[in-house]
Amino acid sequence: MTLDAVKCDRCVRKSLDCMFREHRRGRKPGTRLIKPNAKRSLDSPQGPSFPEGMPAEGDTRRPSSPRDERVSDFWAESEGLQPDGLLSHQAMKGKFSLQNILSTNHGSTPDRPVESVSPDDPTRCGIVSHEVALRLFESFMTKLNPFVSQLDPHLHSFTYVRQKSSFLLAAVLTAASKSFEISLYPSLHEHAEKLYMEAFRRGDKSAETVQAIMVLTYWKEPNDTRAWMSVGLAIRMSMDLGWHKLGQDPARQEKLTELQQREIRNDERTWLVLFVYDRSMSLQTGKPWMIERTPFIESAQDWWRHPLAIDNDPFLCAFVTLRLLAAEVFDLSSPGNHYPAPRALAILQNRIEQWQNKWLDVVDPGSCHNFMIRFYGAHQSLQLFSMPLQETLKNQTFNETCDLKPLWISYHSATTMLRLMAEFPSFLSLCQDSVHVMTAYSAVLLIKLLLSSPPMISQEIEPDTIATIRAAANVFTGQTAPLSTSCSLQSRFLNNILMEFATLRRPRPIDRHRSIDRAQGFADTNAPTSNATSFPGSPATAPSHSPIHQTAETHSIPTARPYPQPNPTNPDQAVVQPQSHPPHPQSIQATYFHRPSVPNPDPAYDTPMAGIPPGPNGLPAVSNMCYNNQLDAASNFVFNDEAMWVGSLTKPLSSETTAALQDIWTEDTDWHTTTLTPDLRKIISQTASKIFLGNELSRNKLWLQVTADYTANLMKATEALRRWPQTLRPLISLFLPITRQLRNNLTQARKLVIPVLDERRRSQDAAVREGRVLDRHDDAMQWIEECVNGRPYDPAGMQLALVIVAIVGATDLMTQAVFNLCEMGDVVRALREEIISVFRVEGMTRASLYKLQLMDSFLKESQRMKPLELDNLDGLTTISVSMRRVASDDVYLKDGHKIDKGTRLAVSNCWMWDPTFYEDPETFDAYRFVKLRQVSGREASANLVSVSPEHMAFGLGSHACTGRFFAANQMKIVLCHILLKYEFKLAEGSIPQPRRYGVRAQADPAAKISLRRRREEIFLGDLAD
């Protein structure tokens, strides 16, 4: 076929003369494709050639000039009859000027050759060396770029960016230096600002220029007020480039090279980021957005599925869909109201929850994307429900019939945002400024809520609110950032609003007992923070130089004065007994476990999970059973007689630890990163399940997951429910997602435990009928069956309760111990030497575990420095408490003080930081209790399992933890395996920060460590007996 017979589809459709060429669209303006010779024979690929533009022999058409081609293109490719479709294409594609519109040259002139590296390049200007620039660039791409999803790591290499745009390179290096090389920041920032001014003066328009402007606004100077205008400039620039007409054309892109496709996706990605930024700025400032919805933007939820998508694309698509969802709030607002109808709000809230669940399953759980999705989802809920809440507060319509849902969701969302600060502290110094704006918004709204809501509400939520804001402020303070950075500004802001709130709220009456009152209060034994009442005449707290405790003023009060009484309207409050009133068994023998009253047996035991009613605290009734007498009896039976059996458990505990570590931490000899707390929770759970449930379920993946989830969810559910009055908790628990998860965990546990128990019962019944010897399983399930002796009970709930007892304290202490070891290389070496020397001689037995004196001392010192239970005095003074109990009868102490029946009691642990008992108590000394074993009178109390008034982390007397012997051996065995089999260190950027759950100060649940397998000096599997 000759070229004369060929006519392209476009010219046939538009009835134009066809000057056939290879497809020209999508190519760089000013370039042409070289046409194949018309007369070249298919059989002779090396046929004669002709000068360009001249006709081949036999071709009767006149030669075509480049101008002819451009004229033909101009008239043939016009789209639509609007100005942007008819006038000069280059004028509508970023070169809008009168000269280009009125140009008689319809095509584009070739671009001038561009020097490979611009003279404005920061390295050529001598601002930074090439090596440092490369390091800063890599830091930006790996640490900062994931927060904004701006650049494609496969496209934007250091060389590519240098050649494309010195402005973008300068912006990237400026942002990176602010976080990683602060000494270079001033000069790089000045250079980037200079290039910004030059780009604006020249009217530069390109994807790189847009990206550079945005990078400078993400991590800008604190006093920079140009963000709104800069984003507007970037949007106008993008529209001038035609991005507002972007549309996906897979067929067209298939014909392009990978580089061309990535550059097209780079434009699309930048436009999507601009859309998110534009909508976010609108939400934060109340100003109108600029970018409207388009089919391309609405299809963004699947844009990340492209074969050339990068790891950050799912995160970007998640944010695009969230901003589209936010727009519906305004679309659904009625003319008379500034917010949608209640039913519409409920639908939108459900969609936000679905959005969050969907995208959390897509992104990497360990990445910053997990934090950002949860944070922005909570922020969206806060903004959504703050609108009806505003009307309620404005009209003062709080009454018995008032809808509390806007208040609850607003309050919950705001506190969630602040608690995420403590959960992900390593991300705070890297995230963009918008995160800090949203954080400030959540804190201010909470203070506004305290000041505007009626006393019946504000009094309930104030302690938790103040503690949450203070905890967030402490996390920002702990970033050790320069004074002018976002973290330091945020820390000062949060502390300032707390001070302002303290001056605005009603002052307390001042009298001669003012200093006494300050040392008194009531401990909310379950709320995240509270006012604690210490007994008169006692040191309420530890010495002032203690690293985590402060001293409150105390005064001697006559012993005839009765104990402070908790507020009868707040059943969560408890009296904190000072150690000036030692909790001897004969003094408080009438006190028992602090537990709610739950019907026994619970009629819900035999009902489907959906029918399980909440207990009086809002948790599933069977969860409250953790404190019931039948659990007391079972745990006492299991643990009080452990001297007879704990020694025989060394081998199964060791073998189960080996299996758990191989599965969770693997045998990988390369460094890899993991989150410590959930890993140790699984390891502790698996080893404990071996003892409690035997072989049937100890390695069942679903059971291990259920126990780990149930433990974590119970903590979270308790924290969530304590924010509400006790009378409302059963109702509120029906709607909280976390309590629904808790009930689902219990359902799963029953489906696993009950069939195993039923099979055991059938087997035993058959043995009785046949006269055979009964099969006896040496595990807690068997022991509890014998203990209850036919009385009704919930076996799954009992097992979960036992696992919680075993998991919570052991996981926390083990986590804190490993965090400590990450910074104590000399102690790690000493512990390994002790393990090897003891086990080589005696093997791994109960007796040899007792001889690991340094390990015993190290664990006890870790427990002393960061106990599991902490509380606040009036939100100002921190104390440690233990032995939370409730008096079942009136109790009279030796000094004449009386504890009334029903009083909830907790005992202060302040002596754990008293220099009278511990030399230099604020310093961590791994050898402290090894040395105390040599001190006359202290040797008996220097063991990990020993209890004494100066170290009551395990309690005291008959109220001491009965499972501490099992826990101590379990932790030592696990730690032996970890020390001999792995090298470990804190992951880069990880700074562990304890997190508060009620009066519990849990070791950082989100902090990461890096580890790798090492060759152990001795094989522990051969030594366990």
From TrEMBL:
GO BP terms: DNA-templated transcription; mycotoxin biosynthetic process
Ranges where the record places region Disordered: 27-70, 101-122, 519-602
Cofactor: heme
Positions contributing to heme binding: 961
Keyword Thylakoid annotated: no
Compositionally biased tracts (Polar residues): 526-557
Domain named Xylanolytic transcriptional activator regulatory: residues: 227-301
Biased composition annotated in UniProt, kind: Basic and acidic residues: 58-70
Keywords: Heme, Iron, Metal-binding, Monooxygenase, Nucleus, Oxidoreductase
Family: Belongs to the cytochrome P450 family.
Name of the protein in its database record: Xylanolytic transcriptional activator regulatory domain-containing protein
Organism: Penicillium arizonense
